[in-house]
Design brief:
By secondary structure, this protein is α+β, with helices and mostly antiparallel strands. 44% of the residues lie in helices and 21% in strands. A six-stranded antiparallel β-barrel has the order 1-12-15-14-13-16. It has a four-stranded antiparallel beta sheet with strand order 2-11-9-4, with no helix packed on it. The chain has a four-stranded antiparallel beta sheet with strand order 8-5-3-10, with no helix packed on it. A hairpin with a 2-residue loop joins strand 13 (279-284) and strand 14. Helix 1 (2-19) packs antiparallel against helix 2 (28-50) and helix 3 packs antiparallel against helix 5 (203-220). The N and C termini lie close together (8 Å).
Length: 382
């Protein structure tokens, strides 16, 4: 861009000398040269500092590595590469015979236990009836024994009941009492089974329900679906490919549909002029002659050249010597998808700081950017 300024000034000087027929002597030539040095230096200093220029700008995008949550063999690939799909669309399917069998077994076990719970409820009703019957038998035996014993005690030696009959009545009463105790014990046992619940569900049923849900989850995980709206790219899997549930071994790359943003590399001396909300302009190598307007939406708060991680080696001096750039993120007013541009296109960008637009040199920056855009018809100049 600096070269364009010098060439433009040189062209203006040549035109002035030709149009006004100025002589080339020791006064006119040094004046033009020294004047150009002073004027151009002032313009470039003000322009480069107050209106930062990114020599390298790129449309960056996020990718999602697709890793199945269960390992298996690919059965079908259900999506075409680079074709947009909706969230939840099946991307590919794994062989799921084992998961399907496990799900059916879990469903059968759950249904069987639910039937057992109903049977136990009926058993509890039967146990309650047995307790009532045993209580009735006990009460009748006790009443019979009490009546005989009372009559025997009242009559004394003239009692019509023998001692054997009294003992038989007493034994019948004890037998009925034991039968009642056994019925109550069985009632308590069945009641404990039927009333063993967690969150209102029978504990055994709850366990089998959880097992069934896990089997269903394992079966559903054999259908790998689109996490969000977007498109699948780099589809190299085919039926028969082994897919493993390892984060380091993705089998597909998915590109979500998002608003496209431009990241530009700015020199650190301009970081004070990279104010969020400032207007910006971007040109692309793929679209000669076109200038896109936008806003600076964020400035990365850290530079990778200064990061340090806990590793087993000492910090190298070469890392300190590396020069870092400030990354500014620009959001365009126009949708790049309307121009059918591939993701990741590159270009150049400028940030216009209206608050510090001294002598309106931003106009020069805009003109130079448009000149560069037209030059891209010939060569993608930086």
């Amino acid at each position: 861009m600096d070269l364009l300024i010098i060439l433009t000034y040189t062209a203006i000087c040549i035109c002035v000398f030709k149009v006004f027929n100025l002589p080339l002597n020791k006064w006119t030539v040094p004046t033009a040269v020294l004047g150009g040095v002073a004027i151009l230096s002032a313009i470039m200093l003000l322009m480069n500092y107050n209106h930062p220029y990114a020599k390298y700008a790129k449309d960056y995008f996020i990718t999602i590595p697709i890793v199945p949550q269960v390992s298996g063999t690919v059965a079908t690939v259900d999506v075409e590469p680079n074709v947009k799909v909706k969230q939840g669309t099946i991307l590919f399917t794994l062989e799921n015979s084992q998961q399907r069998i496990a799900l059916k077994q879990a469903e059968a076990a759950l249904a069987d236990e639910q039937n057992n719970v109903l049977q136990k409820d009926e058993s509890l009703l039967a146990a309650n009836a047995k307790v009532k019957k045993a209580e009735s038998e006990r009460n009748r035996s006790k009443a019979s024994y009490d009546r005989v014993k009372e009559a025997n005690d009242s009559a004394g030696e003239n009692s019509p009941f023998s001692q054997q009959e009294i003992e038989n009545k007493y034994n019948f009463y004890l037998s009925a009492e034991a039968t009642l105790d056994a019925a109550k014990s069985e009632q308590r046992r069945i009641k404990l089974i039927t009333e063993s619940k967690i969150q209102g569900e029978n504990t055994k049923v709850a366990q089998l329900l959880a097992a069934k849900e896990k089997a269903q989850l394992d079966y559903d995980r054999t259908f790998i679906k689109a996490p969000v709206d977007g498109m699948a790219s780099h589809i190299a899997i085919r039926p028969g490919t082994r897919a493993t549930a390892l984060p380091l071994a993705p089998v597909m790359t998915f590109i979500p549909t998002e608003k496209r943003r431009i990241a530009g590399l700015f020199f650190q001396n301009s970081v004070k002029r990279l104010e969020v909300g400032s207007s910006a302009e971007v040109i692309f190598d793929a679209l000669p002659g076109q200038v896109f307007t936008g806003k600076l939406v964020s400035v990365m708060p850290a530079m990778s050249e200064g990061q340090v991680q806990a590793v087993g080696s000492l910090m190298s001096a070469n890392n300190i010597m590396r020069h870092g750039f400030v990354i500014g993120v620009i959001e365009l007013d126009e949708d790049l998808n309307e121009h059918n541009l591939p993701l990741g296109v590159q270009g150049q960008a400028v940030v216009i700081n209206a608050e510090h637009d001294i002598l309106h040199v931003s106009l020069v920056r805009r003109i130079l950017l448009r000149m560069m855009a037209w030059l891209k018809y010939v060569y993608p100049i930086k």
